[in-house]
Description:
By secondary structure, the chain is mainly alpha-helical.
Amino acid sequence: MTACCVCEGDAEGGYLCRSCTATTVGRLHGLPGRYNDLLPFLTPGNGGQGGRRSVAVSAPLPVSEPVLSLRGPGGIVGVVEDWVAAVRAARGMRAANPVGAVPTRLSAAVRELVGHMPWISVSWPNAGLFAEEIRDLDRDIASIVDPGDRDDCGMRLGTCPAVDVSGMICGAVLRHRPGAKVVTCDWCGCTYPPATWPGLKTWIEHDEKEANMASNKAS
């Protein structure tokens, strides 16, 4: 038996077993949709003005750096196009010349890699590294768009009420993680020690009420 480079199952003489091959193909097919799923997470909050509490917080980036990196030229599309280049080189093919916007390039690169999968799984020694990097990329995206309710994510408190120097409300989800003595916003970095928790609860409820009112007016 030849062991799969990823799960050590039966690769039937190749480098990836049927299950890992199918899973990798599925992850590849899902990347364009995952790219789109990241868009709502690009900005931590929707902003707000005036009459706010005084919170000592420096101005955060106007966008989420991890999301921006994943959606940028060196992110998801960069990883996939690098693997296209590696496969083409290994197969003695001419280098690709990506054209168009990032979504167009990503879809084209995904289609090409899916087309190469029969060869990758059977004949390419780097198949394991390739499948693992696509898996890790998918997990990186999932950690943002679909973190789930795992215990290590902590208890959801509400949205961060911190305001930067321009008056923008952060609005990212705050969580109190097990054992943590301070609540820290993962987006803007504002910290909330226990003494501030009663006021934090008040401002979270205030922001949620304002958001609901705005939503009702829009509808």
